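Let's do one together. I've listed all components of the complex below, 573 residues spread over two lines.
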Amino acid sequence: MVSVSNISMRFGRVYALNGLTLQTQPGIVGLIGPNGAGKTTLLRILLGLLKPTNGEASVLGLDIKTHSIDIRRRIGVLHERAYFPVSMSTTDYLQQMNRIYETETPIDELLVLVGLSDATDRKIKDLSAGMHQRLGLAQALCGDPELVFLDEPTAHLDVNGRDDIVSLLIQVHKERDVSFLISSHILSELERACHTVAFVKKGTVFDYGTVEELVQKHTQNRFQVMSPNAIRLMDILKHTEGISDALVTGTSSIVVELSPKFESEELISNIARMNGIDIHSIKPTGTLEDVYRSVTRDE
Amino acid sequence: MSKRIRRAWTKIHIELNISYPFPTISILLVIFIIVGAFSVLNHINIDAHLSSGVTDSEARITHLYDVVNHKAVAVFLASTANYVYVFMVVIPLLVAFSFAQGYSSGLIRTLLSYPFSRRDVLFIKSGTVFMLVGGSASIGAFVNVLFFVPIIDHLEYFFLALISVWALVLLMTAVSTLLVVITRNALATSFGAITIWFLAYVFITMPDTSIMTKILLFPPFAVARYTGSRDFWLLSLFPDDVLLMNLFTGMLFTGLIACALFGLSYIIFKRTGV
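Okay, and this is what the predicted structure of the assembly comes out as:
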């Protein structure tokens, strides 16, 4: 779907991308990484909004330098700060989108799909933040795209709004076979939706694989510890040799990461026992957020 | 061909909806009608011309015809010359808020994510300002001489004045567009363009400024002078014997410079990231 080879992008003396290489397969692909890692810059280069300093890239087999408009005709885009003509109604707006892409996507079906069937004649300025994102997704689907770029699609939404959008993405992918390339900071939603994830760090792809592969690779020494004195245990563990990370995840739970040379959770049990702290359970844990913490901790 | 026209109309329609929500266009038209009406009111004292001792009724009708015809031309030329001051403020502001502000609001990025080329975006944005201002000014001027139109002899003056208005609007839009792609900032564009045209206005009042430069920068003043109008002190800056050839040459250069500025704007817009 997307093929990026040794792309670099320099702003003045700063490299936003530094020899980034990435090959994605059809499906839902996530781009994760800290602020300034280069995720949005990569999306803008793929869209032809920025010209890379070096390197080559193609989208749907088309070179971004020579076929930018052809690419944009075959993909959909929802930017983080999408701009809508607020004086238009949702239906009028989507009809205009159809004309731009020269398609005849049924607007009614599209509005039902994104959950805006009750807002067909409403002005865009009267829509809520969640409805704006749904409308943004509808406009991205107007051209009957094979691939959709989403830049922080749930950044300004509450938990329910985020869940709805993620469910919608999965539904659209299954029903219409549309692939997505999603840049997001909300890792829990990427974990739910994405088939593969690319971890972007300092302008390069640090790692790429399925969510399971990344979690397995980067969180193998991570354990969730349930204890009535979890906070005290964490304070003790933080100053213990062999513990590389410890953080609170609830009133009675902490997550502890052992240094590579200490691969057994017995170290935690022993320390707790020596300090008279009861432990209810210790079990391996790993989420995309844990991967993120593990990978970015060294910066 | 029809497909291309339909595609262009879709782009213009979207641009009008995005950048000119109701009642922006109506207000623009009203401004030009009001400024034009000021010109009418300034020339309405027909009675003074009729009290010139003509007693014979046939001669009086002929005289009335001459006076009204002269007034119609004067009203039209005065309104097109007055519009220059409106253009100096309105065009930079329109270009700034419909185009430059799009950089900060995400509009330009959104438009360039659709299958629009950069040339499309630049020329639809600038072209819409050009058409709206030029069109509103033309309609405003016509509305104010509407009742005179059936008896106008010197139609060529009207067309000449209209050409000069459109040439100036083109040049002013081109200057503002160049500032947009350089600064990418609405405030810098509007203040920059207004300042440039204020300085240009001062420049043409200087004694050493050549007649061709004056025509090139402000063709409506030159046309008003060519037709013999002396309604503005500024027109006295132009010599009595402005030649039609000079007018056309000056306006041709106005258009050519505008096209060159648009070309330069396109090159800069194409090379810069969004």
